[in-house]
Design brief:
CATH topology of the largest domain: Kinesin
Bound molecules: adenosine-5'-triphosphate
Helix content: 40-55%
Structural class: alpha+beta
CATH architecture of the largest domain: 3-Layer(aba) Sandwich
Number of helices: 24
CATH class of the largest domain: Alpha Beta
Shape: elongated
Strand content: 5-15%
Number of domains: 3
Largest sheet: 10 strands, mixed
Number of strands: 17
CATH superfamily of the largest domain: Kinesin motor domain
Amino acid sequence: MVKQAVKVFVRTRPTATSGSGIKIGPDGQSVSVNVPKDESAGIINNQQESFSFKFDGVLENVSQEEAYTTVAHEVVDSLMSGYNGTIFCYGQTGAGKTFTMSGGGAGYAHRGIIPRALYHIFREIDLRVDKMYRVHVSYLEIYNEQLYDLLGDTPGTSDSLAVLEDSNNNAYVRGLTLIPVSSEEEALAQFFLGEQGRTNAGHVLNAESSRSHTVFTVHVEMRTSEAASERAILSKINLVDLAGSERTKKTNVTGQTLKEAQFINRSLSFLEQTVNALSRKDSYVPFRQTKLTAVLRDALGGNCKTIMVANIWGEPSHTEETLSTLRFASRVRTLTTDLAVNESNDPGLLLRRYERQIKELKAELAMRDTLGGRARVSYDDLTDDELRELHGTARRFLQGQAEPEELPADSLKRVREAYKALRAVHIALKSEMAQQLATLQRATEDGAAATGAQNPTISLPGVGDVDPRAAAGFTVGQAPLDARPPPRSELGDHHPHAHATASSPPPMLKPQSSHFTGDAASTYGDASVPDSPSIARGSGAAAATRLAGIFAVPGDRNAIFRRYKSDVPEGRELTAALKAAAAALRETRGSIKTLGEAVNGAKRRVDELSAAVSQRRSAAPAGGDGEVLDSEAYALVQELKVVKAQYRADFDALKVAREELEPQIQAASVARAALLEAFDRWAATQSDATLKRMAATSRNGPGPGDEEDELDAGEAFERMQLARITERDPDSLAYHAAMRRTAATAHGGGGGAVSRPPAGAGGAKAAAAATRRMEATQALNRAGVRM
Ligand SMILES: Nc1ncnc2c1ncn2[C@@H]1O[C@H](COP(=O)(O)OP(=O)(O)OP(=O)(O)O)[C@@H](O)[C@H]1O
């Protein structure tokens, strides 16, 4: 956490009246206010005449662009690096808060901090191609201590909205609509839409007055485009336009307007108390006293980079309000916040990443097995049927009816399972033996020895027939192989398959030739050709063992494999399928490579051109908003447009190609697995002599290339950066387009209209706003105030 002082800038509204009594110091940071002596207090009075304040900057007669650069640029840059920010405008009615935050109605050059921040944010997103961003906007209005969702589908009310704290003690508004936006134009359209809703609630005291506080928030989620993309950095910026305070006595308001003023003054007064408490480092800070302070909690003392703009209106008649604003601003300047990047791990994405890693590792193991000449080893959990088979083998092994080679030893997982099976079967056999002995003892004791000696058969439920030799104490009851599944106690309740249903796939314990070594071939003999081409249970291990002997000569397996692919019809067919899959994959990878290079090249050019355009703009004569470009700059902008369009097209094509890649990788690995499995199956049906002959003739001969090995070439592309670029015009196009869309919505929709109706312009919210406006108008009429 970094301690951060809240910065305060003063902005003056230009005034035609001379003698305002406000002086800006030459350092551009200090303001002094001269208060004329109150004559009514008599000749001798102690009234102070001059008050001086120091701030981080004073903006007098500055353009909107300069105001943005001074006040907001740095906070928005921080936002893009993961830090929260808040900029709030405070000041008396008519001092220029809305002008500063939203802008004047006079057009593009007069747009305020919010539209400029949206431009800035999306330009940064365009430039940072190595990051992926998701942006949402929300627009909250606090009117008469009620919360309104200006972007909600249904009119937001205080009932559905509440200011809460998340697990990191950050304030958030539960129920507030967050609209996803993917471009400056979309974000601006939402902003304008919310403004329409707000406008209905405002402008009642006079043409320039907002009667509510508004908080436009841009929520940014940033991820790196690399594999670690489940780590997201979340940040947001609150752009706050506070309602103006005014003295109710001054305007003689009554009724609804008086009520509004009281709510405004109450919330601003608590804002002041909150700032005072924080400034004094009180143990109790009245954040919860009003909705405004609850919403601004982070901005005033939490994890946030905070900027205050103190708007003042230097008319002599407003000196009291000016002083009050500057005093408050000075106290705000004593505050500090604790700044930290907000990181969050997306559990869903983490899980997906681990699943992907496991899949990749399995694929890698399979590849190693293939390259090492081992038959394919399964690294998956054993199925119920495989476990049952294993337990049968373990039982036969312990009973001396199976060889050690029949127990799997091809992977650590299977070795462990074999040990577990041996232990479980051992325990089960011990208990069966104990039971049997007890039964025999009982039979002897009961005096049944005479009959029992002639016929010692004892039926043990569920175990099977007892070997007659049991009576002589040689062995125990032996169930026929597969006569029953292993009891749950043998499988172990902890095993993932212990509770699987009977609908599991049919058993097929795949032989794993690679772990069988030694003289297994001689044990089974060359003539042990299985009847069936499939490796039947029981004969599978034998076939695998036999093949291990044949494949013992290094390279033989691959040599036979090559012959299988070229000479055996099934092998040819499967190889052709694999080749087709590999070719499609290669082609896609090729286009990804080409498109990736094109995207990177276009990106570099976009960066160069953007820098050149900015340079031209900053070199342009001061005073304008950089709208008038010389011919060279104009040419640069035109080229930038073309390059960006190309960039976007290439990027879209790259995205499509990348989407095609995963299914193609899967298709290729399925084809490869099918080929390898078919080969194993086929090899098991061939005589040793045939296989050895094939190995001998193929060992040095040419063979078709092992395309399947090439499938993993070019894995570098898997890590190719995911660039997310939304093409934006560097000038005002987005702004005007958003304006047009919002206007289309306001006039009943049509093409290009913002899809969602404005919360404030339709339904109950609009009705409530209209009622408020009507009541207020009536109150003002009664008070004789002209609208
Ligand atoms: N710096 C400025 N330059 C030019 N015009 C300004 C400036 N500041 C304010 N104005 C003009 O003053 C008028 C009042 O400004 P604005 O509506 O922004 O005040 P406000 O503080 O938001 O008031 P309220 O609290 O009542 O909403 C507007 O017509 C606006 O265009």
